[in-house]
Amino acid sequence: MPPPTERQLAEAAARLAGDLLAADWTLCTAESSTAGLIGHVVTMIPGASRYYVGGVIAYSNLAKARELHVPEETLATHGAVSAEVASAMAEGVRERFDTDLSVAVTGIAGPEADGSSKPLGLHFVAACRRGRPATVERHVFTHDRDGNKAAAALAAIELARRETGTG
User: Fold this and answer.
1) Given the DSSP bridges, would you call strands 135-140 and 122-129 parallel, antiparallel or unpaired?
2) Among 46, 52, 119, 155, which residue is least crowded by beta carbons within 10 Å?
3) Residue 109 — very low, low, confident or very high, per pLDDT cuts 50/70/90?
4) Alpha helix locations (H) across 31-131?
5) Residues 13, 155: contact at Cβ < 8 Å?
6) What residues contact 126, with CB distance under 8 A and at least 6 apart?
């Protein structure tokens, strides 16, 4: 299956926009491997300021710890590309922006691995609703760097839709 196109990303973001507006919810993002792509796609939709509050690009472990309050012990024990870190990123950004919903992504986009035994294309996406622990999904994408980033962004948007109860 080819990576998602910009049009597919925009269509998914438009569906998410409708879900967020219908629920009267706000959204924020925490991005590592996607480096702002989710925020970009979400804000392609006119009127995004009614539900999108903002995001944090936390590419390094230092940024994850400092800006999203990911515990350094979690980073050291599980590594930056892990379900535990994705969950902590989603919870940290949601608390930071005080939104109803957050999404977070951490992964190995490629073309090289991070020096660990984790596979190229591995991504963890997480969503966190106010008052609930984060939901995390594991994905392994097999595209080039841009394709892996696009696939991870789409996975995060789709997870956010499911968390609204409509996706």
Assistant:
1) antiparallel
2) 46
3) confident
4) 37-42, 61-68, 72-78, 83-97
5) no
6) 83, 86, 87, 89, 90, 103, 104, 105, 134, 135, 136, 137, 159
Question: What DSSP line would sit under 142-166, residue for residue?
Answer: -S-HHHHHHHHHHHHHHHHHHHHT-
For residue 16, give the 3-state DSSP assignment: helix
Q: What is the token pair recorded at 125?
A: 């996406």
Q: Are 37 and 153 in contact (CB under 8 A)?
A: yes
Of 49, 55, 82, nearest to 68 by C-alpha is: 55
**55 close to 36: Cβ distance less than 8 angstroms:** yes
What is the DSSP-derived secondary structure letter of residue 116? S
Q: Using CB atoms within 10 Å of the CB of residue 13, give its burial: 0 to 12 exposed, 13 to 18 middle, 19+ buried.
A: buried
Instruction: Tell me the β-bridge partners of 140.
Output: 122
Which domains are delineated in the chain?
6-164 (3.90.950.20)
pLDDT per residue as tens digits for the range 31-64: 999 999 999 999 999 999 999 999 999 999 999 9
